[in-house]
Design a protein that fits this description.
InterPro entries: Seipin
GO biological process, one term: lipid droplet formation
CATH topology of the largest domain: Jelly Rolls
Oligomer: single chain
Radius of gyration: 45 Å
GO cellular component, one term: endoplasmic reticulum membrane
Order of helices and strands: HEEEEHEEHEEEHHHHH
Number of domains: 3
Protein name: Seipin
Strand content: 15-25%
Distance between the termini: 84 Å
Largest sheet: 5 strands, antiparallel
Number of helices: 8
Main location: endoplasmic reticulum
Helix content: 40-55%
Length: 339
């Protein structure tokens, strides 16, 4: 080494320093990796537990949403028919007094013995929506009454209401402009004039009774001149408080409700998890069982059989005649020595 020139000595020392630094860095990385393995395992457990809690919270939130709110609007299509008196025919003039008023019978459930689509405890606004053509008989019909009657499965009358209805008046200029526009669009693209809609609120705060549930309803238009193209009955839920927030702002409610439910689940399960982790967990107990330590008061595993020990025991004990003879001789020798 003493005969080497200074540049070679410098390169040698630099390579030695670089090798030592790389070795030290490798050892540090290996130590950090070994130390990070328990931390990574713990983080994996925590992540899996949090993911499970979020999934359960999401399922609980969806269940609460569809249980508490249900459908905001329940629409029932009705078909009006003339209810004739005994022996009368109702396909004659509309002014015939022998014909009754247009009436419709609607079932709230496929079977009268089953519960309808309404949610118990929820307030509803019940209204009847009519599609009326802008015809002369409807304009001359004036004010008429709409009657609603709910009945139970035994056809016992329940909640009822009757409200007046009137087709709004339109001046002749507006009607003329609408007719010309409808005729022009009808010739060009085949567009027909839309009928006028009339909505009448019959019940403002209807709550389904869980003891006397409604299985159907009757709708009656107390007018023989009114012409109706289509009619529906709407049950619109009157949401308030938490239900209103969940329905009107679903994204914000989900972002706030799911973490809140997950936090409650964590609070409920935290004592059990802390007790499990503080006691060593299940993996340590399994490792102790495999090592031969069954734990405090646990069943001990059976020891493994050693063939050499088994042969020695057979030779000394009752494994054969030779073993018994050797044992008797040894006993006789011990007795002679004592004497």
């Amino acid at each position: 080494v003493g005969g080497e020139d200074p540049p070679q000595q410098q390169r040698f020392w630099l390579s030695q320093l670089l090798s030592d630094w790389l070795t030290s860095l490798t050892n540090r990385c290996a130590a950090a990796a070994r130390a990070a393995v328990p931390v990574a395992a713990w983080l994996a457990k925590v992540g899996s537990f949090l993911g499970t809690a979020l999934l359960l919270a999401s399922a609980i939130y969806l269940l609460l949403y569809y249980t508490l709110i249900g459908e905001e609007v329940t629409v029932l299509h009705i078909r009006l028919r003339l209810q004739a008196q005994t022996g009368a025919r109702c396909y004659g003039p509309a002014e015939d007094l022998a014909c009754g008023f247009p009436v419709a019978n609607v079932s709230l459930a496929p079977n009268r013995d089953e519960v309808g689509e309404l949610v118990y405890g929820q307030a509803y606004r019940v209204s009847v929506r009519l599609w009326l053509p802008d015809s002369r008989p409807n304009r001359l019909a004036g004010m008429f009454l709409i009657r609603l009657q709910l009945y139970s499965p035994g056809f016992e009358p329940g909640t009822s209401a009757i409200r007046p209805a009137l087709l709004p008046h339109r001046p002749w200029a507006a009607r003329l402009f609408g007719d010309l526009t409808a005729a022009a669009f009808g010739l060009l693209i085949g567009w027909d004039a839309e009928p006028r809609q009339l909505s009448v609120d019959l019940l403002d705060d209807y709550v389904e009774n869980p003891f006397i549930r409604s299985s159907g309803l009757l709708v009656e238009l107390q007018s023989r001149r009114v012409q109706v193209q289509r009619a529906v009955v709407e049950f619109r839920a009157r949401l308030s408080g938490l239900k209103y927030m969940m329905y009107s702002y679903p994204l914000i409610s989900a972002c706030l409700g799911i973490p809140a439910i997950a936090w409650l689940l964590l609070l409920v399960s935290a004592p059990v998890l802390l007790r499990r982790w503080l006691s060593g967990g299940g993996e340590e107990a399994d490792a102790d069982w495999l090592d031969g330590d069954g734990g405090d008061g646990g069943p001990q595993p059976m020891p493994l059989l050693d063939p050499t020990r088994h042969e020695a025991a057979a030779a000394y004990g009752g494994g054969g005649g030779g073993g018994g003879e050797a044992r008797r001789r040894r006993a006789d020798g011990d007795g002679d020595g004592c004497n």
